[in-house]
Structures are given as structure tokens and as C-alpha cells.
Amino acid sequence: MSIWSDSKINSSVFLLTGFPGLELEYPWISIPFSCIYAMVLLGNCLVLHVIRTEPSLHEPMFYFLAMLALTDLCMGLSTVHTVLGILWGFSQEIELDACIAQTFFVHGLSCMESGVLLAMAFDRFTAICNPLRYTSILTNTRVIKIGMTILARSFLLITAPIVRLKFFHYCHPHILSHSFCLHQDLLRLACSDIRFNSFYALALVICTLFLDSVFILISYILILNSVLAIASQEEQLKSLQTCISHICVVLVFYIPIIGLTMVHRFGKHLSPIVHVLMGNIYILFPP
Hints:
Layout: H1 2-10, E1 13-15, H2 26-53, H3 60-87, E2 93-95, H4 96-129, H5 134-137, H6 140-156, H7 159-164, H8 183-189, H9 195-228, H10 233-266, H11 272-284
Antiparallel strand pairs: 1-2
Main location: membrane
GO molecular function: G protein-coupled receptor activity; olfactory receptor activity
Organism: Orycteropus afer afer
């Protein structure tokens, strides 16, 4: 009986949520979503191609930009089949194994993007506050080590709670809140003991996303302090202009994550469309 029960659990099928009440409009809704995914995939591929083929861009700042583009490209590839699959009318169902794999990549890539943004903040801090030692501090070897550390931190730390999802008993209706799989969404459907996953996930968010954002903020406070010490206003503007695009990317990344977290935590009474919309903004807007 136990073997049969485990087999049944491991072959669970979940129903992804599109836009409730707008099913007849899916052909039209799919058009902007298809265009956005095309921009995400083609745009980031173009960034990677230009950095790879242009020798003048082979320096730390552009290596970190390439890491960011690769992360965004993978994020698009990990969700495109479920989001457009629903809108194009292929299928709203996803098996547990596929859902767990998608969860692993979505959360791992989010953590990786946060780490890359922190590395880019360190790059700007070094370039502005210690320009004479910039090339000696951020050597190609160090950039590779930073990239490998970000990759290892992003995917190794989330392995334990993601693997545990495979062995949970899902007794609640198998209806997910989004058009892709998230760890907190699967926990909501589980009837097993989820305390480890809940506490581990909270600790992981604090140790990665929260601390990354704090260090990014500190780096820009130090950058601003260094820039204001420059006598020439023209040089101040020139220094700040190199940071504006990075600050915008940081805001574009963290605001949707905070919004989605608030919706999951405090927005249970909100319309399902709000949950789906915030989820898609979280997945698509930063890339």
C-alpha cells in the first residue's frame, strides 16, 4: 500500500493558472506575451553575441553584464513553455517532476541574478572609489571565481528544500496560483510537515536576496560619498552616469520580487488575476 501511495504521489499532476475569467481572450493575450518572450530571448542573445565578438568589451564590467544576460535568458527559457503553453491552448497540466525542475531553475536563477547584481555593484564601487587598482583587483581569474561562486551559491543552497518537494503528500486541490511553478506555491498544497522548507526558505531569502540588497545599498552609499568628494561637477555627473543603468536594473529586479512576496503573504483575499499578473511581472519584467 505504501509503495502504491508513493507512486501515486510521485506521479501527481498539477494545474497551472492562466488568467481566470479571460480564457476567451487568450489568443489576444498571447500576442504581447509572445513578443515579450521574443524580446527576452533575442535581446539577451544579442547582448551575449556583441560582448563575445567585440574585443573592446572584454573587461570585468561587460563580463558581469554577460552573466546577467545569460541569467535572464535562462529565466525566459525555463518558463516560456508553460506560460505560452497555457495561452496557446496546449496544456495547463504539469507533472510533479517537471514542476519541481522548473521551481529549481526559477528560484536558482533569481538567486543568481541577485548575486550578479551584487558583483556589478562591487565592480562600480572599485571602478569609482579605487580606479587605479581596478584592473589589478578585478582580474579575469577573479571574475571567473566570482562567477563560479555565484553559480554554486545559487543552486547548491536551494537543492535540499527543492528535493524534499518530491516526497511531500499533496492532498489539497492541485491548482497552482501561477502559470509556472514556485516553491511557496507547492508548499501551500502539501499536507506533509513543511516546517523545514518554510524556515529554510526564509533563512535563504535573508542570507541571499536581503543581504545582497543591503550590500548593494552600502556600495552605492560609499560610491555617492566618493563622487561628492570630487571637486568638478562635470566629473561628478560622469561618475554617476556609469551607475544609473545598474541602479535601474537593481530596482527592476527587487521591486517585482518584493511585490510578489507581499501578494503571497498578505494578498490571499485579492483576485487570482492579481497573483498571476504579479507572477508574470516577476518572471518577465527584469529580463
